[in-house]
Amino acid sequence: MYAKERRDLNGFVVRKAKSYRGDVWAYLTNWGYRTLNDLDGVGFAPPSHADLADLFERRVRERAKTYDTYYSNRGHGISDSDVETMADHAATAVLRDWSPEWIREQRERGRRGGQISKRKPSWTDDDLDALAKLAHLPMQARADALGRKLRTTERMWSALRGR
Asked: What is the pTM of this model?
């Protein structure tokens, strides 16, 4: 059964879904991009829209929860009548947005995000000078004297040696 919230062992929510349809849409598009990349990687041309839509429709019918609107209570899932429409729209979006450089673009986005998210050191040059004066003390005593955690003091010491 589909759960809108996924919880860890302590009961905390670790993932919140917007909707089942949204999750299936994200799955189809990501799977479509990867499929086109695999085909491109071995030298095949991208499939036609009809072929890709058919592939998506079969994938949804195999893996997603579907229901017949006349014979079941609604619940989570995609109605049988919406499967074909969703597959067609997903194929259109994937063929429109995909490029042979998709994997490289994704890696570049991740690299840029990793560069942006690096924090600056929490100490100044004056803090490093004060640490240099405490060189005769053990590392824990240096941390206590500066009012810093041990690991931060170790990083400061490493930066001081690299200066």
From this structure: 0.54
